[in-house]
Amino acid sequence: MMINVLTYVAAVTMTLLQGAQTVTDGDTIRIGETRIRLEGIDAPEMSQTCKRPDGSIWRCGQQAKIALMQKIGAQPVRCKISGTDRYKRSLGTCYVGKLNLNQWMVRSGWAVSYRRYSKAYVADEQMARAQKLNIWSGEFQVPDEFRARKRHRQ
To answer: Other CB atoms closer than 10 Å to residue 119's CB: what's the count?
Structure first.
């Protein structure tokens, strides 16, 4: 008896986008008409505030956006798109030259590793936390929890 085995190989195709960008917030950019969510990270929401060690409040969501804008400057951004999220944004890992912007945001303490979807930046988050960089310098609510609490209040 002869058994035929067919093997299906699913090739994962990644789209590459590059060009001038607009930073929407600390974890979303736009290249042309395409909104790109920086995959594997979660930055504070634009309306989110954080508390410094001295107790003062600062606009960490706005500062995360500014940090990303300043890091990119006028340089072109290249993003490897791996899929879409439930809001129909493209999910991608984005670069300026060889610098992985997703990783830079977490390692610099401007975003957390979005563990629900990826473990890629956990070590970078631990490094930022240990060095008390930016959001890790004081107290803050994890962005996912901030959004959930905001939805609950509405």
So the answer is: 11
**The CATH fold of domain 15-140:** OB fold (Dihydrolipoamide Acetyltransferase, E2P) (2.40.50)
Would the pLDDT of 1 be above 70? Answer: no
SS3 state at 154: coil
CB 36 within 8 A of CB 138: no
29/90 Cα distance (integer angstroms):
10
Cα–Cα distance between 8 and 131 in angstroms, integer?
47
CB-CB contact of 19 with 31 (8 Å): yes
Closest CA to 106 of 141, 71, 135: 135
Domain boundaries, the chain: 15-140
pTM, entire model:
0.88
Continuous segment of H or E residues that includes residue 37? strand 34-38
Tell me: pLDDT of 6 over 50.
no
79 with 31: CB under 8 angstroms? yes
Tell me what the mean pLDDT of segment 34-47 comes to. Answer: 97
